[in-house]
Design a protein that fits this description.
- Helix content is about 80%, strand content about 0%.
- The chain is globular.
- It has 2 domains: about 140 residues, Farnesyl Diphosphate Synthase (Orthogonal Bundle), CATH 1.10.600; about 210 residues, Farnesyl Diphosphate Synthase.
- About 45% of the residues are buried.
- The chain is mainly α.
- Helix 4 packs antiparallel against helix 6 and helix 5 packs across helix 6.
- It contains 16 helices and 2 strands.
- The chain has a two-stranded antiparallel ribbon with strand order 1-2.
């Protein structure tokens, strides 16, 4: 069995065991709390685990330079701790998905109903009074908040096995920075969806790029890389090199996500066709389109993006507009350029060769993914 497969199995095992323990605790309070844990555990069983994998392989890549400073027992404890750190990142990511789906009013996640829709359905099936929608909002906010706390708990427990206080402090600092940056990016994303039509069109691409830098690029790729490497005791130069690799890759990751959100196959993505258009996402793809349109067609484009009940014909019209504007082709070129920049930065890094190869393989999966 490959090292990656072993890691992912251990991460899933830790998440399942953590949720099982929380289920016992919650049941002791009230059986009404069981869905809170069950919905969480269900969400945690899906996904590509990119964050866990980037974190682990950056740790492995940076470890060689610090290995002389650790004895065999310390290295074993450090490896065990990495499972917990990776599990905490997956818990954090799932928490962000819960809140993101609520903000976007997304119906599905990973091919299943999103958490707020699950709570809505629970309300309807139980015949309770009040609004199922409001219950869904309340339930998902609380679950997302709970998962953020659980992520910190898992991370803190993992750091108890840190080989030294310097590595622990460095990893903790990167984790804390990640939490702040993703919330900043999330707010900027929400703001852009509402404020974009009132702001200068020529600045739209720049604003969209700032959103994906903080909402996705740093949190999805750079932060896991830096957390793993910091925990290994990486040098400042290695950390800088990993940022140079991770940020353009993270930007490409989100741009690919934007393309899939408009043109992706629902059978592969697990989301309805044109889902980002229904959610009014002000992505780079949309910003590039909007900049190319004249005032009349631009106003129509904005009006359609502001709707949440687009028909199939309207989705098709928006897709054709995006393609006809050249925005799709420009976005694909941007993805290619960012991917090349990222891979070039990785090539320059002086890190353990096998782990470096694993990071390259992960990067190619991120760039070429179809879901």
């Amino acid at each position: 069995m490959s090292e990656t497969r072993v890691l992912l199995d251990l991460v899933q095992k830790q998440l399942d065991e953590f949720c099982a323990d929380r289920r016992v605790e919650f049941e002791a309070i009230s059986t009404d709390l069981v869905p809170v844990v069950d919905y969480t555990n269900s969400l945690l069983r899906g996904g590509k685990r990119f964050r866990a994998l980037f974190c682990y392989w950056s740790w492995a890549a940076a470890l060689e330079g610090a290995v002389q400073q650790q004895n065999e027992a310390q290295r074993a404890k450090s490896a065990s701790a990495m499972v917990g750190i990776c599990a905490s990142l997956e818990m954090f990511h799932a928490a962000a998905l819960v809140h993101d789906d609520l903000l976007d009013q997304s119906d599905t996640r990973r091919g299943a109903p999103s958490i707020h829709r699950r709570f809505e359905q629970l309300h309807k099936e139980s015949g309770w009074v009040g609004s199922p929608e409001r219950f869904g909002v309340a339930g998902s906010v609380l679950v997302g908040d709970l998962m953020l706390g659980w992520s910190s708990e898992i991370f803190g427990n993992a750091l108890l096995d840190s080989p030294n206080t310097e590595n622990e402090s460095a990893a903790r600092a990167e984790f804390s920075k990640m939490r702040v940056e993703v919330m900043a990016g999330q707010y900027l994303d929400v703001l852009e969806e509402n404020a974009a039509p009132t702001r200068p069109i020529e600045e739209a691409v720049g604003r969209a790029n700032r959103v994906i830098l903080y909402k996705t690029a740093k949190y999805s790729i750079e932060a896991p890389l830096l957390i793993g490497a910091a925990f290994a005791g990486a040098s400042t130069a290695t950390l800088r090199g990993l940022s140079a690799f991770g940020i353009p890759l993270g930007m490409a990751f989100q741009l690919r996500d934007d393309v899939l959100g408009v043109f992706g196959d629902p059978e592969v993505t697990g989301k309805p066709i044109g889902d980002d258009l229904r959610e009014g996402k002000r992505t780079v793809l949309v910003a590039l389109t909007r900049q190319s349109l004249l005032s009349g067609s631009g106003q129509l484009f904005d009006e359609l993006l502001a709707q949440r009940d687009l028909t199939g014909e309207q989705i098709a019209f928006l897709q054709q507009t995006i393609m006809g504007s050249g925005a799709l082709a420009k976005t694909e070129r941007m993805i290619e350029e960012l991917a090349n920049e990222s891979l070039a930065a990785l090539e320059l890094l002086e890190i353990e060769p096998y782990a470096k190869g694993q990071l390259q393989e992960l990067a190619l999966k991120v760039i070429n993914r179809a879901s």
